[in-house]
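Notes on consecutive records. When two proteins share a document, each keeps its own sequence and its own token line. Never mix them. Below: protein one.
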Amino acid sequence: MNHGASNTNLDLDPNDDSKVRYYATSDEYRDMLEYIHMLYEEGLIDQSIFTIEWGQFLANASDNLYGSMIFYDPIELFGEEIGSQYNSLAALEGPDGHQSYNKLSSSVWTPDNLVITSENPNPATTVRWMDHFYGDEGAELYYMGVEGETFEMEDGEAVYSDHILNPEGDMTFEQAIAQDLTWLGSISGIIKADYFQGGETAPQSMEAAEKIEPQVIDEVWPRFTFTEEENRILQSTGEDINKYVEEMRDKFITGDEDLDNWDSYIQTIEQMGMEELQEVYQAAYDRYQSN
């Protein structure tokens, strides 16, 4: 994942920076699975990690059953009493000396939420409208809404109005904000800490980000874009391979599948159409580079 997490199982070949790599077939990926399997076998990882439901996860955390995790801000998740016990870490150094943090997505969150059809009488105006949300004014409108209606300025910071922060009845924060704003995945834009009010911008999260910054990878890829024909391949061959990889990942970690069967795993992926899938990804990467 040396260029972030936006493209499933895809990164740059360490031996050839002109080629993409499906890293779930690499030797390094196998080594990672072997290590995580050891942790799982020793009981250092929750044995229900692949099946646990959200409510049970929160209950376990409330009972102080977790010593560490890679997740969102613990205070936001578990409350002050439990969450404040956790402290953030910088990236750990791997056995080969690698020390990077790469579980990152592009700041351009969804590059595929705008379509201009042949029926649009003003495509240039539509593009200008979309472009507005990549600037500060647009980001404020997108994430915070209208001053005096959905947020107020306090000490130079935009803060949601009380009817959003403290909604009536059983309404959640997400449900309250959805009544006034559209930012929950509706259009494209850049996520900006000044306006995005989520667990990622909570105080503990920002402190963690500062610690991890020296180990952050240099370039985070956005989600690649594909042609109509490439999408057909991704929706068939691509989804089948990714589903198989995910299932086998879980089995290798839990021990339901022995890592001695790695060669068979690779052979199965190749028979499912890995070469064709690789060509699709390579074409998309080449277009990304040319832009």
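Protein two starts on the next line and is unrelated to protein one.
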Amino acid sequence: MPQTVKAAVALDEGRPVEVRDIIVPDPGPGEVTVRVRASGVCHTDLHYRDGVIGNTYPYLLGHEASGVVEQIGEGVHNVAPGDFVILNWRAVCGRCRACRRGRPTACVDDFTATQRMTLADGRPLTAALGIGAFTELTLVHSGQCTPVSPEVDPAAAGLLGCGVMSGLGAALNTGGVTVGDTVAVIGVGGVGSAAVAGAKLAGATRIIAVDIDDRKLKHATDFGATHVIDARLADDVVTAIRDLTDGLGADVVIDAAGSPETWRQGFYARALGGTFVLVARPDSDMRLEMPLLDAFLRNGTYKTSWYGDCLPSRDFPALVDLHLQGRLPLDRFVTERIPLAGVDDAFDTMRRGDVLRSVVVFD
């Protein structure tokens, strides 16, 4: 029967998040309910609250989560009750043109639960990124659940559901960093620091972190950066990166800041024939103008990275195992653990740059 649980809800644009009772229905065909163990506080949730993304209020926020499958609906075969899972907002259908051509990371299908969770008064909720995880129990499509080892800390595991996977994947999947590469990461908040960690995991020998915040540069060093550039002090970021790469530029440059200025820095800081990856989402009003001849003469590859070009069923279990082996410090991304009522305060903390991630934890 439907269950009533506590959840953090954005009722209207710009209003503080409120903890409300919501009703979670029993899972229907292809659906599962997940008892949430932990959920990270991501910029995307703040964008939902403030109307930057969509306007179909009320929103059930949260999407960067892990938990335990409680019930499954008819036709669900990939998970079973009791499985510990990471929730992924991007699922793979296996049927679309991209999947049929062996390119599942470009899947264009969309898996979300058919039923809607509701407020106690019956108003339907829009689940953030089709998940809605700032709640004790959530309803999702079974394809949004990826089983991983239950030995992992739920707070650390859940971060693979969005931001940390985006950064790791920008280096490992999109950027294709390999042993001996030089890598520069511009903007080393949570996503950028994850890109640094990914570059280290891949065997890069020189990893350059660029930011304007000393705290973030320190975090990047902890995750494996061999050099740091304070963009406030450098006369020219491109020159500074080239000075650290024998005048050649970096083999892979990852822009995790997402502004026209950092785009230009990343483009021109590449080695000839190198790879430039944009992983940060630019604002809709940003524009870029540059000489087309430069794009021709500098050769190489320009890519955007969406969700780290991940394949959850492949990447999540492998990355959790690497963490359990002590080779990937997922736990270092968890700056603080907070109760459900602390989501709005966590947004303020995030805006100030005081954390890599605040994580809502449920007992």
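For the record: Residues 197 and 223 are 5 Å apart (CA to CA).
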